[in-house]
Amino acid sequence: MVRTGRGSGRDGRPTLEQVAARAGVGRGTVSRVINGSPRVSDRTRATVEAAIADLGYVPHRAARALAANRADAIALVIPEAEARLFAEPYFSGIIRGVTAELADTDIQLLLTLIRTPKERQRFGQYASSRRVDGVLLVSVHGDDPLPDLLTEIGMPAVMNGRRSAQETFPHVDCDNLGGAQLAVEHLLGRGRGTVATITGPLDMYAAQCRLSGYQEALRAAGREADDELIAHGDFTEESGHAAMRALLRRRPGLDAVFCASDLMAIGARRALREVGRTVPGDVALVGFDDSSMARHMDPPLTSVRQPMEGMGRAMTRALLAEITEGGPERAHTVLPTELVRRSSS
């Protein structure tokens, strides 16, 4: 039964003020709980939710959005083609984290792929019209103007990854350099003498960091990086296959490869098999991501685990805080990576 009592709305329904009074908190705190703000303690959130249940309060979603000039929607923008979105487990991990963090809110998630300058322009116009409250950016390349456009129009936004070491745009990243170092140190520690790498696209800072981690691990072991042992890919399986073939032509005696993504490691494994090289007998192999594919490879792939779902959650929490609270605090977060050892190395 809904208790109305003094202070109820014109239609007899409980009001936000009644919930605040029952919970012993301010009206703004109740609003933050309803809007899913992370800046509320678990204890306060539980008290407010108990008051909401006790009074039978139901937020009026349309009025709430109108009063706050809110759309109750955020956009997840991925500037890649559909083929990469559905082929790479990295994106599904990020999406799982984002949707899990939004599960207890009223906020809708709009997935947007941007593949051309025209589509970027169209999305810029869409965001400028305030049809979303904020934007999550994933897989941004170094020359992408979209982050700067969002800054210009004052749109709350958080990026997955960084464009450079000096990134000022709000972001959540993982320790790409440290993860790559762990991978190469592991290969050297297993007695491998000629360690090659297959990089990601070097217009992305993550790929640059993974290459730097490879080079730094070699230098720390008293070895100089050899350009013939570096082949470039674009995080796809086919690019890993082509890069592995190029490495074998240049340095047929190599005995280990660090691939900057699990998908490229799958392509490299295929190229090795085509020329009769065994893994790990002839060539040890390490990837990056620790996706489900790594566990199901033959042999199972040693890989650097990056917290894909964790990054999706952290990005979403940071964006919700920016939308709800505003203020000068901006996310600049780097999450740790770890090496998961399996039989490929």
Automatic annotation (TrEMBL):
The keyword Flavoprotein does not apply. Keywords: DNA-binding, Transcription, Transcription regulation. SMART domains: HTH_LACI. Residues 14-68 form the HTH lacI-type domain. SUPFAM superfamilies: lambda repressor-like DNA-binding domains, Periplasmic binding protein-like I. The keyword Iron does not apply. Gene3D superfamilies: 3.40.50.2300, lambda repressor-like DNA-binding domains (1.10.260.40). GO terms for molecular function: DNA-binding transcription factor activity; transcription cis-regulatory region binding. CDD domains: HTH_LacI (cd01392), PBP1_LacI_sugar_binding-like (cd06267). It holds the Pfam family LacI. This is Family transcriptional regulator. It comes from Streptomyces xiamenensis.
